[in-house]
Structures are given as structure tokens and as C-alpha cells.
């Protein structure tokens, strides 16, 4: 199978895009940083206001930053991309993955898992540290893919379509706790419920 059949046409453009510049159209507004990308238009990054006016009903993902590196939430990208083999991280209670390779100074320590492409240490027994390294791995070996299976992809999109539309109306900013909701622990009240005191029925006269 050819590389273009294993990598979506928008992915490499996304990985090359510069984010977090100030929007030339809405620069005076509060939410004018260009941190969004439209998978349908496959063009430049844009801001919150551009999304509302030019990309309504399009597939849009938001890019965030962690330690000056671009990341995307797993919940936003997994519906359109097979992220298997890529290391994910939990930042501000949200699971994310990095767009591109991050340089790592050599520490001299022995590590159990490393990225096949750049050699960065990984937390889990996976192949790549980022989407960019997976792209290189596909072009080099062709033994993995970003493409979702057609059936599972369409099913996932139907399930997530309503929640995706709701998220699009909310303000999502890197480092903000307001838009990140940690999972609620299961209630244990039923396990601690005290039994009531039994009452005997009165004897009949």
C-alpha cells in the first residue's frame, strides 16, 4: 500500500503549521491566538472567531501547548486518526499527544522503551513519541497506518457528533482548569448503607 493511503492528506500539513500567532483579522480580541486547524480546509491555523465565521460545521481540532511544544487532545483526534503506537500523556487531567518530535538530551540512564525514530524515552511499550515520528515510521517501513477502519470510524463519529458540536461552542484554552473535567469517582454510598432496624409485626388479638 502506498504511503498516501496510510497517511491522511491533511496530517503532514498540520504537522508543518505554525500555531499561536495572533490572528491578523481579530488581533484586538481576547481570544485571537491561532490555535485551531480545519481538517476539511487543510489550510493555515486560525482563531476562535475565524472558526465561528468561516469553519462552521467543519471538522476542527484545537492545538494546545505543553512546555512550548504543540499537543492535541486524544479525545479530539482519535475520531479521525489511528493513533495506535503513539505515546500519550496526561496534562491538566486531559490525555494528549505531541504533534512533533521533541529533542531530548542524553541522560546516560538506561530506559526500557524508546521512540523508533528519534530515540526519545517513552513511558510505555510503544513505537513513537509523536504523530510526526509515526509519519516517518510509515514512510520508512510501511508497517503501520493512521487510517481508521471504515466501520469503526463511522460508528465513532456518530456517537461523538453531538458532544463534538457542544465542545465547539466552549472556550478551550491551554492550562485552563475550567474546561477540563476529571472523572467523577464512583459512589460508594451503597456499600456503606446501614441496614434498618427490623420491626416485628404486632401479634393479632
Folded structure, characterized:
- The chain has helices at residues 3-6, 11-16, 48-54, 74-77, 131-141, 150-168, 189-192; strands at residues 36-38, 60-66, 69-73, 89-91, 94-98.
- The chain is built from seven helices and five strands.
- 27% of the residues lie in helices and 11% in strands.
- The protein is of the alpha+beta class and 205 residues long.
- This is PLATZ transcription factor family protein.
- InterPro entries: PLATZ.
- Residues 156-205 are annotated as: Disordered.
- Residues 166-176 have a biased composition (Basic and acidic residues).
* Total of DSSP H or I helical runs spanning 4+ residues: 7
**Terminal Cα span:** 89 Å
* Percent of residues in helices: 25-40%
Oligomer: single chain
Structure summary, number of beta strands: 5
Low-confidence regions: 150-192
Which series of helices and strands comes N to C?
HHEHEEHEEHHH
Radius of gyration: 23 Å
Tell me what portion of residues adopts beta-strand conformation: 5-15%
Strand order in the sheet with the most strands: 1-2-3-5-4
Based on helices, strands and strand pairing, what is the structural class? Answer: alpha+beta
What profile does the largest beta sheet have? 5 strands, antiparallel
Can you give the mean pLDDT?
A: 79
- The general outline is globular
